[in-house]
Design brief:
This protein is mainly α and 192 residues long. 71% of the residues lie in helices and 0% in strands. It has twelve helices and no strands. Helix 11 packs across helix 12. It is globular. The chain starts with a helix and ends in a 6-residue tail after the last helix.
Length: 192
């Protein structure tokens, strides 16, 4: 499309940013890797995270230590997810120390998952409640003013509902939750 036609006049870094904005993470990653001057650990870890290349992120741990505090705060969520996927909860705790003080929905969701997995139920419950609070801050998007934001909030609300169910199941050993999840899996489709 248009981006391809103007690619010859854009710098590689600008082209990579456009690819990121379009969700073309593999193409963005290829551009970043094509030149040593573009191989910024922040940009690479962002692409790796969106492509769920957790091993690649874990291989960048030494580079994380060399980042300034601002970059560490940008990337900490990616490193935390990478180590969560390898079940190294101690490493996850280390990277969570670099989360920004002002949590966004991604950090709140991750923290909820982590605290449920590590059996810290009160902390998980607090993050889930905070997530619902954040979701209800600007209800105007549901009037049709921002369909993408409304869709994102609805998806996040569903995540928090499911995290609440997972928390209750782990905390109380609630058998009903298992049947709820089984029913969801039976009726799951790509459109749902």
């Amino acid at each position: 499309g248009i981006l391809s036609s103007i690619s010859t006049i854009l710098e590689k870094s600008e082209m990579a940013r456009w690819r990121e904005n379009l969700g073309e993470w593999e193409k963005a990653l290829d551009l970043y890797k094509s030149s040593p001057t573009l191989q910024n650990p922040v940009d690479l870890s962002n692409c790796y995270a969106h492509l769920q290349l957790w091993d690649e992120i874990r291989n960048m741990s030494a580079e994380f230590e060399k980042m300034d505090e601002k970059d560490k705060m940008k990337c900490a969520i990616y490193f935390a997810w990478a180590y969560y996927h390898s079940k190294d909860l101690n490493a996850v705790s280390y990277y969570m120390k670099y989360f920004p003080a002002e949590s966004n929905l991604n950090i709140i969701q991750f923290s909820s998952v982590f605290f449920i997995a590590s059996n810290h139920y009160d902390a998980a419950r607090a993050y889930i409640e905070d997530g619902f609070r954040v979701l209800t801050q600007n209800l105007g998007v549901f009037s049709g003013s921002d369909i993408q934001e409304a869709s994102r909030k609805m998806l996040s609300a569903q995540h928090f509902i499911e995290l609440t169910e997972a928390l209750e199941m782990k905390e109380e050993g609630d058998i009903k939750a298992s049947s709820i999840w089984q029913n969801r899996l039976k009726t799951f489709s790509q459109e749902s």
